Amino acid sequence: MKREMVLENKFNNVLEWVVPFAFIFCAGWITWHLPAFILTCFPPADVSDYDKLSALFQRIDLTPNFYQLFGGFADFLDWGCLILLPILGYIGVKTVRRASMEFEDWTSADRLAVFVGRLTMMLIVLLCFVMLYEVLLRYVFEAPTLWANELSLWLASIIFLCAGLYTMQQRSHIRILIIYQILPKSLQRLCDVLSTLVIVTFAFFLCYGGYREAFDKFYRWETFGTAFDPPIPATVKPLVLFITVLVAAQALLNLISDWNKQTVVHSAADDIGEDDIARLKASIGEDEASIQSSSRRGTTQNQLSGKN
To answer: I need a surface site. Which of 88, 113, 179, 197 has the fewest CB within 10 A?
Structure first.
């Protein structure tokens, strides 16, 4: 029985690393080849826009002339990644587990935000590797790349957006609680409702005002205009709206989940970790021991001087 539990834990640990990595790979592949799906499924009506997008895709296609399906631009790998992406997302959401330092009271509805947090953590690692690779080539081999700077900017913008959803789920966003904590529970609930209403209202008007621009940038597949020419405007602008909607939904979910919970009083001690507390206790114990030792030595010396 114990052996089966150990094997199950190892399997879950492997899944927690493999599934997010596979999801990021499929999402990255689809994002880079997304013009193929636009040309295949929703081709632009304007001939010039169609030719421009077609020329762009032929320039960036990583697998040209590789078993194209359905008579379009997308090939076997493109459709395979598109099919795998929701499957990997479902497995990742279902298998994600709370880490020891994360927020304790989370429900099954929080799994999406936690899985996005895992993706964000892996993207941070990927961003660090890209930056280290560029530093190595630039300052050691004097052969800088043409893509590392734009890719770093692209990854950093995605990390910033996705981290906002994870932060909302963890209740780690910046809050000023000096007045909130002294209010009765009824007024605290009113403050929670008002703050959630502000977030939802902001998300609504942001989507209402930015939808058309985001759709145009995505449909035209607007790129960054550099040598690497990544589609940062075409991807980040729609992602801003999508993540903002998820943050608003998570804020509403937090309001429902925390409605009947006891008020938690926060203090400066919340920012101190268990390791720091252990070190403080150890240092205090050492100080007390040294004080007691000094006191005993002083008493002994007084006794000896009295005898003399």
So the answer is: 179
- The CA distance from 60 to 35, in Å, is 10
Q: Facing residues of 166 across strands?
A: none
Q: Rounded to two decimals, what is the model's pTM?
A: 0.80
For the stretch 261-301, pLDDT in tens is 766 555 555 556 566 667 767 777 665 656 555 555 555 55
Q: Residue 77's Cα: distance from chain center in Å?
A: 26
How does pLDDT run across 181-222, given as a tens digit for each residue? 888 888 989 999 999 999 999 999 999 999 999 999 999 999
- Cα–Cα dist 158/153, whole Å: 9
Domain parsing of the chain, residue ranges: 1-95
Measured distance CA(129)–CA(123) in Å, rounded: 10
pLDDT of residue 266: 55
pLDDT in tens, 121-151: 999 999 999 999 999 999 999 889 989 999 9
The answer to whether the beta carbons of residues 217 and 238 sit under 8 Å apart is: yes
Chain centre to alpha carbon of residue 73: 32
